[in-house]
## 1
Amino acid sequence: LASYGVELRNAVDAARYRLKQLDRLASEWLAVSEAWRLAPHDEGPSLAPWGQLQAETFDEIDAFLAAFVRVSLLVFPEHNTGFAAERGVALQAVADLPPDSVLGDREFRDGWLHHDERFDYAVEHGLGHAAQRFTVAGDVSDRMKSAHLRIVEMDTRIVHYRDRTGGYRQASLRAMGDALKHLDGKWQLLVL
């Protein structure tokens, strides 16, 4: 198992770094949102910072998922036979991970990275197909969900997204971060 130490450590560190960046961006986005809400409408601040922060958030989620899937594939391999299966079972045991760990769930990653397929499905089946919406949890509604393929709750770090059949699912970036932290702690104990 020690052979996987550097790769696992690099992937976990990269994913956790991206989550810290997402936390920073979310704080900035929330501050801009509050300034906009409190400003007189005829003198409100520019919307440009919102657009920039949303673009950066989108990019950070992409980068986070790239690192996250590296961890996921090492610990929960796609191929459940042979050496890969043995590696997965051993790493899961060392990290004390249940079979249903969020680290093994790649549906969100697939939904995010295969956006073109989700977009095609939404258009073909008459579902709402606006790309994404950045908002706060209290503003998420069924109407908003029906109109957007992805919704990012900046205050809770929950992402709503469509699955392969057009259904709505959600992923908690914080829960994913907690699972990475747990794995990191267990792995550090192993290599010490």
Note: Residues 65 and 109 are 6 Å apart (CA to CA).
## 2
Amino acid sequence: EAAALVLEHLVAAHPADHRAWLMLARWHQTQKALPKAAAAVRKAAELAPDNADVVLTDIELCVAERRLQVAEQLAAKARKLFPEDERVFRALATIAMQQGNPEGAIAVLEEGLADQPGQPSLLLMLADIQLQNGRLADTEQTVATLVERHGVTNPAVGLLQARLLIAQKRWLPARQKLESIRPLVAQTESLT
């Protein structure tokens, strides 16, 4: 409640600042108050229609509210405005997945990786979607590329490796991998 009050005061004090509206939208999003978040991000979009953070947050909220057609339109706009922002490719892939189109998601992530070879968040998302869709050989190659370029200091990489081993029914190596990343997971705030 106190955080909401502070953000409401911030918006009242700076009604023409898109960043204040964006902070309010993100806070409402964390509180699962999607209609309030959508209203705040729409206000931010009125003030800064070509701001990457505003457009991408708007896409996230549209996906969360299952307004996929609007999300697609915003993603097309984002792709034109921010062609080098990896978040655009992730947004497009997320929309494709929500539409039940994993092949479309894979294609857009591969396109993003063609522009930004080795981009870790694109590789992680690609490997996850490949794994979810039983494309184990592709997953293995994507994870190998990720490890080759970035190592395994990110617990998400180790978790992907363990999930791949489980999908391959390689139980002992999967268990060993999970045990080896346990300390990394314990130190990662977002995973605890």
Note: DSSP finds eleven helices and no strands in the chain.
## 3
Amino acid sequence: QGQFAPAIDRFLEVTTKFPTHDLVDDSLYYAAESARATAQHDRAFALASQFYKQFPQSPLTNRMALAIGQSLIALGRNDEAAKSLADLVARHPEPALAVPGQYYRAVALHAGGKLDESLAMLEALRADPSAGNKDAALAQIFADAQFLAGSCQFEKKDYAKAIDPLQKYLAARPSGDVAGHALSYLAVSLAAQ
């Protein structure tokens, strides 16, 4: 939580005191991102939506569209998130936006219980996470897509299909955020063989 909570108020203060300044879009963007960082998902969604409407031509608009989708997932509004992220990917096929957009769309589908749809979305992201991915953020998303695919298969009780993506996730991110879950799922999946 750190300094994010007071930062939100400071960023918003800039938007009200200097509404015509060149950096007002940056201030609103960072207010929304700070709200997301402090798990204030309703506030993050409201600020991101305000940004998106107020600054449609800002260079940060596309990243804010991704943040809107992530906020909707955090709020449990998974169908809205999946649609919002599908729209983002359709408008921006470049990897810097399409890859995270597609991944978070798969997360929304998974969270909404649509495992087969999530798996279909993940297929394009399940490339070898180390092959040609010089961008660390994209490489992490490719690895996380492996975990999500393995998790979907595990939840479907298709243990044989869960093994490969879980192993790939652990090879790419042995200390990743969900490595413990991946190990547990992998152990159960291997035991089920």
Note: The mean pLDDT is 91.
## 4
Amino acid sequence: PSLQRLILVDCGDLWLTGGHLHLSRLSTMVLEGISGTAHTNFARAPALEHLAVLAVEGLAETGFSSLSRLFAISVACKSEASLSVVNSVLGAAPTSVRVLQEYTRGKPAMPSLGALTQLTCIRSARLSIIPQLAPLTKLQDLELHRLAATDLAAEHLDVLAQLPALTRLRFSKALPDGDARKWRLKVRYPPI
């Protein structure tokens, strides 16, 4: 019962269920590379604050929406099956979730943010997340990994300009070499 962090990597079917399972102090759970199905009773981990679901091919869960302390979710997809799992997790996530880290690059398609309208921080490596940000009126911090400000298109800027709480926008990729004046961006607040 004193376990605080559980990391399960590269396994087939996984069973975290049963009446004798008590994870009352578990604050972090990482499920990564599960090629079978992760059968998980989240009600047995009421103190869970961070859940990572990374390339999980199947998830049979109960009690997920009751996790009132869940603050952060990390997700990654490598196939359509893992995208389905991520969409299920994001769709059922409790309203307490404030941080989303999305590590998928390229295909498959961008997971749906579902009902995560209370997010205040997002980290992602894909521009395709930006069109989904419009309903996130509390989003304060957006970090775009492996992207530069010059990767943004006009439609991305339109969405970002409408986010009233956004105070921090970060890019991890440096601007291209060359004439810096050519790449300079001007940010104005409040919008005209």
Note: The CA atoms of residues 100 and 122 lie 5 Å apart.
